[in-house]
Structures are given as C-alpha cells and as structure tokens.
Amino acid sequence: MADTLEFNEIYQEVKGSMNDGRLRLSRQGVIFKNSKTGKVDNIQASELAEGVWRRVALGHGLKLLTKNGHVYKYDGFRESEFDKLSDFFKAHYRLELAEKDLCVKGWNWGTVRFGGQLLSFDIGEQPVFEIPLSNVSQCTTGKNEVTLEFHQNDDAEVSLMEVRFYVPPTQEDGVDPVEAFAQNVLSKADVIQATGDAICIFRELQCLTPRGRYDIRIYPTFLHLHGKTFDYKIPYTTVLRLFLLPHKDQRQMFFVISLDPPIKQGQTRYHFLILLFSKDEDISLTLNMNEEEVEKRFEGRLTKNMSGSLYEMVSRVMKALVNRKITVPGNFQGHSGAQCITCSYKASSGLLYPLERGFIYVHKPPVHIRFDEISFVNFARGTTTTRSFDFEIETKQGTQYTFSSIEREEYGKLFDFVNAKKLNIKNRGLKEGMKQSYDEYADSDEDQHDAYLERMKEEGKIREENANDSSDGSGEETDESFNPGEEDDDVAEEFDSNASASSSSGDGDSDRDEKKPAKKAKIVKDRKPRKKQLESKKGKDPNAPKRPMSAYMLWLNANREKIKSDHPGISITDLSKKAGELWKAMSKEKKEEWDRKAEDARRDYEKAMKEYSVGSKSESAKTERSKKKKKKQEKQMKGKVEKKGAASKSLSSTKSPAKNMSESFKSKEFVSSDESSSGENKKEDSEEEGVASLPPSSEDSASGSD
Questions:
Q1: How far apart are CA 220 and CA 235, in angstroms?
Q2: Is the pTM of this model over 0.90?
Q3: Residue 198: is its pLDDT beyond 70?
Q4: Which residue, of 177, 202, 469, 703, has the fewest CB within 10 Å?
C-alpha cells in the first residue's frame, strides 16, 4: 500500500463556504492546502479520534474529529474511493472509517447534542444537520427560545444568518434549560467580548487601509481598532500573514496584516490592514500583565517592559500573539538599491515587493500573489513610452494583474529574479521596437546562449552596413526627414544667406521678390524626401535582396529537423534553448565552417544590393522623366483649352450685339474712350485685344444695317 494519498479538487467546509484545495494523507497525518489563500491545515495522526464517510451534496464527504474537539470536513470524493481511504485509515491511523448517512425525513423535532465545537441536531441516531459553534457570532435567549446568529460569509452566494431553537420547559428545579443551552453555545462560540483590560495600547497609529488614525488595543484573543468614526474588532484566528516592508525612501516602514475573512465597513471589504510607521519614532512599552504571566504566556518572546522603534514593538507584539512568522523582502535589490519597484496598478502608484515566495503590492489596492498560484508572467511594452514597461501576472484561476510604468532600468533585475524563481515567462505583448529596447538593458543569464539576442545583433550590423552604403546621395535627405527638429536650423541658414545676397542689391522690392521664391523652393525640397520616406514605410520592395543570416541561424536551419527528431514533442522555446546549448558546446573548427558560409552569404548580399541600388536609381530617373513629360503635356493641353475658351468668348460677345443692337451696341469711339478712361493702368496687350475685337463687330453691324 502507498504511504501517501493525494486528492485534487477537494472542498473544505469553512464557515459555511466550500474552499477548494488539495488534500494529502500520509503516515504523519492529514494536510489540506487552500488554493485561494494558501493556508495549510495540518492534522497530526496522533490527534485523530474519529473518521466518518457520508453522502453529501458534492458527492461524498469525509469528516474528521480530533481529540481536542476540532472538526474538519472535506467534500468532493467519489464513491469508488471509499475502499482506498478505509484501508489507508486502518493501516496508518488504526481507525475504522464509519459510514453514517444524514437523516432526510424532513422532521423539525429532535435532540441537540454538543460534541466538542460542534452542535448536532439528531433524529434518532441519525444527524440532520451540524453547526460549527465557531461560526456563531451572537447568542440570545427568550422565553423557551434560543437564537443563534452567524458570521456573514462574503464568498457564498447565500448565507445562513440566524437559527432559532424552541426549548421546552422541564420539571427539574434549579436548572433553566434555555440558559444551559445558551451557555453551551457561548462556551465554544466565536463571540468577541471585550472583557478585562487590554494587554497594551498603541495610540494614534497611521493606517492606510482602512484610512485614518486609530488607537490599537491589544487583547488576548483579538485586536481592537478604535477610530474617530469606525471601530473594528479583528480576531487573531482571522490573521493569515504578517509582512514588514521597508519604504523606498528608507525612512518609513509598512506593517501589513493579511486577513481572511476580511473586516467589513458597509459594502467595503478590507483584506489587508496596512500601518505606516516612521523609522525615527521610538516608544517605551509596558504590558498590562505581571512578569510571571508574561513569561508563562509568551515564553520569552515578550517581556513586561520593552523599548525601541514603534514599528518593531508593534510587529513583535503581533508576532507573539498571532503566533505567525513575519515575512520580509528577500535578496531582491532594484536598480536604485531598494528592495521594491515603483509602479502603477489600477491608475494608482505604489510599490511592488518581490518576496521569496510571492509578490506583494502596496498600497491601493493591496495585492498579494503567491508563486504557486501564478500561471505565467509577461514583460510587455509600455503603452505610452518606451522608457517604461509593464509587468503582467496571470494566475491559474485566470485573474490577470498588470503593474505598469516600471522604469526600464529595473528590467534586468526583475527578469533575473523571475528567472531564478523558475516562473513561466510568456512574452506575448512584445513588439519589434520593445524587443530591441529589452536587449539594450536586459541582464539575462550569461551562461546560456541566447539565440534571439545573437540574431538581433546580426541584423543590427547589417542595418549599419546598409546605412553606410546608401549614404552617398540620399543620406542627408533621409536624416532630414527623420529629424524634423533640425529642419528649422536648415531653413534659418538658408534665409540668412538670402538676406545677405539681397542686401547687396539696392532695391527693397527686389529683396522681397528674391526671398519669396527661395522660401517656396525650400518647402518643396523638404517635402519631397518626407513623401519618399512615407512611401518607403508603407511596404518593402519585394524585389529587394533578402538580408543574410548569421552563422548560428544557418546552422540552426540546417539542424532544426534533426533536433526535433532527437527530442519528439519538444516546444519551440525548449528547441531554441537546446539549440543554444548545442551551438555553445560545438568545437571552434566546426563553427568556422558556418562562419565561412555566413561570410559568403554576406558578400552575395552586398553584391546583390549594389546591383539593386543601380537598377532602382535608373528606374527612378525614368519615372522622373516620364512625370516631367506628362506635366508638360498637361500644361500644353491646358493652354489650348484656355485659348479655345477665349475664342469662343469673343465670338459670343460679337454675336450678342447683333441680336440686341438697341441695348448693347458700342461704337468705336465709345469703346476706345471707355478703355482709356477706365483702364489707364492696364497693360497694352489687353487694350490691343479690346481693339482687335472691334472690327468683326463693326462688320456684323454694317451687314446687319444693310
């Protein structure tokens, strides 16, 4: 028989809600890990008193009772797993796994039995329902009646809030059955009663969530936050984790308390209690207990009189009372030397702390993500600028967290941290520009060959060589179009030269006439290369020669199928890693062979580029000549159309007086006098046109008179 049994997708019933997780049974005991909170319940084998197998709503369930009265319920088992569990309990725990079914008669009259922390309502020998008394928040009595109120469960869609029991009177003298029932409930219920004095009080502490200043009173079983508007009582049993985090300014400290279930204020839920302290604040603390009680209860972890920094005292007292470790940042150090990274989450700026087993973000809203619930992380390009990047985390439940506006200098440190923790990295948000910027500041593992980095380096060298080859005639125009800030300087220089040239001429009008065409010429000259650049950006020439591959890429293309056949089912990422390892382990002589092939490919590419550039220049010259010829033809056609229009206009003007002689007839003297009186400043050619149009009109009028 196996020493351990493991079950996935098992549900633990806690305060009326079903929390999924993983259950493991071993020789030492039973371990259940909550998938949502990461909380681990560990039941030692020696503590188990009874095991019950029964049919429940989610299939079959297992109820475990311990010797100190605690009850643990786990649901989600299949009926076929009973034999395996029964044999395991007999062999390792020496317990008989009893089968007990719930009563489904529907009766509401029975007997109440108190066993440990459980209230069981039975009909005969069969239980109808069970109530964990730790779920009870209040217990009130009336005449022959007891009312139980329960803690509200935020995770459940429907919560049971109240149950009333009718207790019939008895004939026994001196014993009130209602009061006896209530006392049995209150002895085990989770009812917070501030009886007695507080162990210690911290005055006016700054709290970020919930916001405000609160007096914190420390009681033996709960924490009391007393503010001007609200009060909160937090049982120590609801505290999951404690964090002590240094602020980036090195002058303040965050003390974070993780809570489950959270504290409530109306519809708002606070899963984290965050206190902010200054490192310079000191305090002298005296516990409201005598030295013997302090030694007996805290076993040397606390003393009656203590002094030191305020944050140290609060964290020390909380650690002793809650009995949980305080989590601090690990070995991570950012670009500035701090143990955190400045970023934004949901439009609020905060600090992201990489821990040894997770990430925590403070403070609005606070987020804690464990490594074991992370599906993958992603380094994505910033949405507004390339000076920053986004860090995305997606959990196994599908929840995504995006921490944005992280400085690019932090990438190397964060990438190395994620890589060292062996988290899955899925860069699905990268673009071409961002890949290059990552390569500039990424500090990846130098021991492993990065095939992608080698490829980008080779392409960068080729681009530089192409830029040097094509810088003979078109380099200045390309630089000018890509650097619009330099254009103003060039224009100013040109205007200065025009101004000096025009100042030598004495006429001011000629000076203005010389400036105007120079300005137009400059604008045309600047726009042409921009247009060409925009056209070149739209798409690459399919006839252009393809860039040569590096020696590594040539080798990889030749051996890719062989690597796939040697490792069936290998992923693309693992294939590139394996190829990098093989290339790194290859001898220098074999690499030289591929280097020669890469050199030959580069020479062929350079030769093809020269031929391509010559051909493209001749083609561009031809297109320019054809454009000029086309423009000339269009100009000539336009001139002919204008002449025809003028001729038709003159004909219409000569024919119209013949139709209306009494209204529009003009004599030669009238026309000449009109021209001279109204147009003294007109040009001679316009006067000649006016006179030339007269003879046909006079002839027409003469013929009309005949």
A1: 9
A2: no
A3: yes
A4: 703
